[in-house]
Design a protein that fits this description.
1 helix; six-stranded antiparallel beta sheet; 2 domains; mainly beta; conserved putative lor/sdh protein from methanococcus maripaludis s2 fold; Elongation Factor Tu (Ef-tu), domain 3; elongated
């Protein structure tokens, strides 16, 4: 498998993975990284990693497309809902609720995103309250009346959490 540059530095021989076949979701096989190329491909910026999987029962067909869930130890990061992110040009910002219930737009650095959740490598601390869907209608230092969103009412927490 080929791993993106952002994940490549976390890959180690022995990392555990689960391989599944989307056409047969009931099949899940344990695997582990046995080898890597040790360098990024200069054209694709990906790392080739090889997995060993016990397929003695022939559950996976040779040449099949499979899904690989790889367990990696990554650098600590704060996770927020993608809806809390505001882009101004090339810079990403998060609206943080400061003391006195004022909004403070803080620049953040995005580590990665899956489209729903954004992992930040800097700019926000775990537990800080943030504004969901801030839009451009809120100004820096504007007084607000926050409404807490319970996690069971929304799939997105109203606060930054560590991942």
């Amino acid at each position: 498998m080929y791993l993106d540059q952002k994940d490549a530095s976390f890959v180690r021989v022995g990392n555990h993975a689960v391989i599944s076949d989307s056409s047969r979701p009931d099949i899940k096989l344990a695997a582990s990284i046995t080898r890597t190329s040790g360098q990024l491909d200069p054209k694709t910026r990906t790392l080739l990693a090889e997995l060993d999987v016990d397929n003695k029962q022939g559950l996976l067909m040779s040449g099949s497309f499979v899904l690989v869930s790889l367990k990696l130890k990554t650098a600590p990061a704060v996770e927020i809902p993608a809806s809390a992110l505001l882009m101004k040009g090339e810079q990403a910002f998060v609206a943080v609720i400061s003391s006195g219930e004022k909004v403070k737009f803080r620049p953040v650095i995005i580590a990665d995103s899956d489209g729903k959740t954004v992992r930040l490598s800097s700019g926000l601390e775990e537990g800080e309250q943030i504004v969901l869907n801030p839009g451009f209608g809120i100004s820096d230092n504007e007084q607000i009346q926050p409404v807490m969103v319970e996690e069971n009412q929304s799939s997105q927490p109203p606060y930054a959490k560590s991942h």
